[in-house]
Write a structure and sequence with these properties.
alpha/beta; Rossmann fold; seven-stranded parallel sheet; 9 helices; 35% helix
């Protein structure tokens, strides 16, 4: 069995620690490096609760990628640094599995061009939970029959970007389905039947192509989303809940194992699932 060499960027964070743990427990993966601005010099395995791995956390991502022999970099950092991190991996000829959200369409297109030119693959996914991918898939199917929908996403209080990448991708998938069905903006999909008046600006949330998206940020949540469809006399609610970060690990491991099959950018774990 060939062992895939992995570097985890953001290894001291909550998601990073889970990735370190999952990689260290997988027989076909080897953790060859851990990078973060915090916990410098600490053993990544001890920090993740799996015991010493003799992999110390360091701050120099470019240097780590060049000398570790890494084949895949997993990035769970923050929106402000993810673009730089991904381009550093591409420049080193290292494939990327990216869970950090906040990438713009222009960022994604730029990453795709750079990765394609270098001949490496990048998987960027707003959500690595298998159930969340199924929720988005079911929402896409339901959109064929429901022209009205709203999305509510709920996350922990430390999540910086709003709305979540999952909510945005769900909305984009629904809009594409509407367009295929001939339910474009001219058909007033998702539109209200009255002129709305917000006495408190923002009360109806953000708006993506006629879809209202509401973001909740509170302690106690991890990652949750409801997609609520409505027709006269009925509603259909799709909900997914991640109650701990372990829920994302099967998807992350799938991404690590399959990203080397990709050339350029693939956006969304669903592209590997379906």
């Amino acid at each position: 069995m060939t062992t895939i060499k992995v570097v985890v960027n953001g290894a001291a964070g909550k998601m990073g620690r889970e990735v370190v743990k999952a990689v260290s427990l997988a027989a076909d993966l080897a953790l060859v490096g851990a990078c973060d601005k915090a916990a410098l010099g600490e053993d990544a395995g001890v920090l993740a609760g799996v015991g010493p791995l003799d992999v110390r956390i360091e701050a120099d991502l470019e240097g780590l990628l060049s000398r570790s022999g890494a084949q895949v970099m997993v990035d769970f950092t923050e929106p402000g640094s993810v673009v730089h991190n991904v381009h550093a991996a591409i420049g080193a000829g290292v494939h990327g599995v990216v869970g950090t959200t906040g990438l713009s369409q222009a960022d994604l297109e730029d990453i795709d061009r750079a990765a394609s030119a270098k001949g490496v693959g990048v998987l960027a996914a707003p959500n690595f939970a298998i159930g969340a991918c199924l929720m988005m898939r079911f929402a896409e199917e339901a959109a064929r029959w429901f022209p009205h929908v709203e999305i509510i996403e709920l996350h922990h209080e430390r999540k910086k970007d709003a709305p979540s990448g999952t909510a945005l991708k769900t909305g984009e998938m629904i809009v594409k389905t509407w367009e295929k069905q001939g339910l474009g903006l001219d058909n007033q999909h998702g539109a209200q039947t009255v002129d709305e008046l917000e006495s408190l600006p923002g009360a109806r949330g953000g708006k993506l192509e006629g879809i209202h998206i509401h973001s909740v940020r509170l302690p106690g949540f991890v990652a949750h989303q409801e997609v609520i469809f409505g027709l006269p006399g009925q509603t259909l609610t799709l909900r997914h809940d991640s109650t701990n970060r372990e829920s994302f690990m099967p998807g992350v491991l799938m991404g690590i194992r399959r990203v080397r099959e990709i050339k350029g950018l693939v956006y969304g774990l669903d592209k590997l699932l379906f």
